[in-house]
Structure formats: C-alpha cells, structure tokens
C-alpha cells in the first residue's frame, strides 16, 4: 500500500487527466440532454488525454431524486436532464496502469439551497476526517469523526457510504480483506480516498472524495479540482 515517488507521480498524472474529464462531462450536462451525453463526454476526454476510463462506463453517473440509488446503467443514462437536477460524478480511470478516483456533486445549470445544505454537511464531515489523516491514525477512528458530524447535521447514516480505501494499481486497494471492515493504521507513502456518499430520497446523490498522498509532513491532494458544487452546462 505504500507507494514509491515514481508511483505517486503516475497517480498524480492520472488525477490531472481525471480533473479535465470531469469538467468535460459537466459541460455536456444541460437540460434536455440525456445523461448518456455526460458519460460519452467523460470517456472521450479520458482517451483523448492518453488515459483509460474504468470498465464499460468509466464513472458512476446519476441525476435527479433517484440518482444516488439507481444501479441500472441503461436506465440512468436514458434519463433526460432537467434544470435543477442534482448530479453525481464518481469518476474512475487510469493512466499507465495507475488509477484515479474522484467524486464531486453537481447541479444542472442552476443552484439549489437544499442541495447546498446537504453538500456542506457532507463536505464538513469529509474534511474533518481528512484533518486527522496522518501516519499512525486508524481509519475507523477517522470514519467515526465523519459519522458524528453527519448525524449532527441530520443525515441518515443508513443512507450514507463512508469508506476508506487505498488507490494504486487497483482503484480500491486493501492490504488484507479485513481492512475493508476493520480499518488499518495509516503509513507514510499511502495514497488514500475517503468516499463519502449520501443518498437523499428527495434530492438524489451527494458525493465527494479525493485521492490524498499521506506524507510524514502532511497531505498532498492529487486533484486540483475545487470542491464546490459543480454548476453544469458551462464550457471549460
């Protein structure tokens, strides 16, 4: 799980490619267009930059109230976007065998007070956990920090995914199967994601995660994409 400097460099390049692909996907998300246009824009951008989208789709997209719940790709991608729909961007790909994994939340063309409210709770929880991310920390303790903030903010933990994982030659890496459920101790050189994904029945999915290189002196975020809600339909 501990990466060499050369590996971290490849992961950073993958993250940079992913950042651009996410913005290209968001630019294609306008009202009256199918969700599949976002998928195609993301995939084309990844390939154009020398990367590879992961699997058949490259990312998990969702929009509208059921956008955080639907697992049927064909159903999801046939949806016609409407102004004000919340959008889930969960974007996975790779460059030279090393993976990128990024999640952002968007909204089609205009803001939403309720989405912003939910998103700010999710962001606060994620960043509170990341603030304690350092060598020697236990990932289960970090997860508990986030869970407390989510609960205090009125979010139902039964509708929320909170999952730490490493990223490298696979998009989800664990040193041992038990790490998935019992956590592990953070070491310098790990590249880690904390996936925080809340599903609201009225709004849809609210998702945020980044790949972070843990060093002895601090954290290095591999993505430079801002963490604000993405207002879609804008060109780069």
Quickly list its features.
single chain; 236 residues; alpha+beta; Creatine Amidinohydrolase; five-stranded mixed beta sheet; five-stranded antiparallel beta sheet; 10 strands; globular
Give me a quick take on this structure.
33% of the residues lie in helices and 25% in strands.
Order of helices and strands: HHEEHEEHHEHEEEEE
Mass-distribution shape: globular
State the share of residues found in helices, binned by percent.
25-40%
Structural class: alpha+beta
Number of strands: 10
Descriptive account of the structure:
33% of the residues lie in helices and 25% in strands. By secondary structure, it is of the alpha+beta class. The protein has one domain: Alpha-Beta Complex (Creatine Amidinohydrolase), CATH 3.90.230.10. The strands form two sheets. Strands 1, 2, 3, 4 and 10 form a five-stranded mixed β-sheet that branches. Strand 8 (211-215) and strand 9 form a beta hairpin. It starts with a helix and ends in a 5-residue tail after the last strand.
Which helices and strands, and how do they pair?
Blueprint: H1 5-27, H2 36-48, E1 52-53, E2 59-63, H3 73-78, E3 86-95, E4 98-107, H4 113-131, H5 139-152, E5 160-166, H6 179-182, E6 191-200, E7 204-208, E8 211-215, E9 218-221, E10 230-231
Helix pairs in contact: 1-2, 4-5
